[in-house]
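Subject: Interface between my chains keeps coming out wrong

I've been trying for a while to get a sensible model of this assembly. When I model each chain on its own everything looks fine, but I need the whole thing in one frame so I can look at the contacts. Pasting all components below, labels as-is. Any help appreciated, I'm running out of ideas.
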Amino acid sequence: MASFVQYRALQRAADPYQQRVTRTDLPENERGEFVLYRPTAARRLSRNLALNFAILRAEELGLPLAIAESLDEPHLNDRLAAFLLDGIRVNAAAKGFHYAFVKNPAALEKRARIIVADELPTRRERAHFLVDGNGLLPMRVFGKEQYAAKFLRDRAHRLLPDLWAQIDDLPPPRRRLALESDPLPKLTALGGRENALALLDAFLADGIHGYADQRNKKPTSGLSPYLHFGHIGIHEIAERVLASDAADEDIDSFLEEAVIRRELSFNLCFYNPRYDSLECLPEWAKKTLDKHRRDRRKPSYSAEELEGAETYDEVWNLAQRQLVETGTMHGYLRMLWGKKIIEWSETPEQAHAFMIEQHARHALDGRDPNTHAGVLWCFGKHDRPWAPERPIFGSIRYMSSEQTRKKMKLNLPR
Ligand SMILES: Cc1cc2nc3c(=O)[nH]c(=O)nc-3n(C[C@H](O)[C@H](O)[C@H](O)COP(=O)(O)OP(=O)(O)OC[C@H]3O[C@@H](n4cnc5c(N)ncnc54)[C@H](O)[C@@H]3O)c2cc1C
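Reply #2:
Try treating it as a single job with all components included. I did that and got this:
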């Protein structure tokens, strides 16, 4: 299998915008006073392709640049707001920019000549230019849905030498609009670029060593909420990982998750309009789930019982409590968590809806393309049929709590 380590000395592509900028049909506001950048996926002022694009447009038009972030995450609650606000505070304090927090951006948007926004496959932004800075590769480069990691991986390694671009910081715009910020609510949850960089440093110093074969037993990077909110970007993470002293197999194993698996999730949400339902499962998975639709669920739990971590299974309860109390869950435990929900729910559709809803409400990294792909993986997406055929699951991969206890270090009540 091709290794990421070969890209250590790669000459980065000269044009970082190739296949990443879309001009929508929104008419330009000829009387607009400024270029507005609305960060929704890359909420940072460094190594940010959409911001660079907005700076260049502002310079070209001779207009000031305005940057305004709002708390527009779906299912916003105190935990998510606090994480976002930490990021806004860091950005608002940065030199060379005016980064404003606005509760209601609609009035501002009307005054803008052009609006530049981040492109996420799970959101529709009202903007003139959408910039896809999500992955090491542009989402459009694949042309269609890639049904398994191996297809995306093969193509990615053919394309990366030409398309892995350097995203540097441009000088701040000469003219900037000092927007009046709304008062920032006083919530905090360790979000923001500085915390992301500290976590990455700590991970490179310790966590990455042994990642290839020990990651179920150790904490992983914890970077997913920062990637989700764009407090840090994948280009910076991948470059730092390649420049680290980690063993080649650990580097490859980490980038397999952070690049291949993550970009497979974006690929799914970008190319498959049914990414939020079981409709987008492969035929074999749909068939086997249907065949076992009437199998007796024993035990079976209601959404309330599951939400309250009231099952007989202490491993699962631990995972659920961790999600509700901290907004995070270890990657390995997450797989078991999903599989058990399938086993205990009346229908696969109920299980799917519960997993998506729990991620939306509680997970710091939820509401992400990775949420959809991760949840669907539990139902067979991006996987293959497994033997033996079992009740409820049919030929979908099964996982047991006993196995999980053996594979992970868990802090369970005695
Ligand atoms: C049921 C289920 C739900 C999931 N929901 C989410 C979610 O809401 N948000 C989310 O970011 N990830 C989700 N994942 C994928 C994965 O579990 C998390 O990305 C990972 O646990 C995050 O922890 P980390 O940042 O410490 O990961 P690390 O192991 O340090 O990995 C680094 C980065 O690689 C990416 N990554 C790691 N594993 C995967 C994977 N299997 N698929 C895609 N990308 C991956 C993430 O961006 C992650 O931050 C889900 C997986 C499952 C099985």
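Reply #3:
Confirming on my end. The mean pLDDT is 95.
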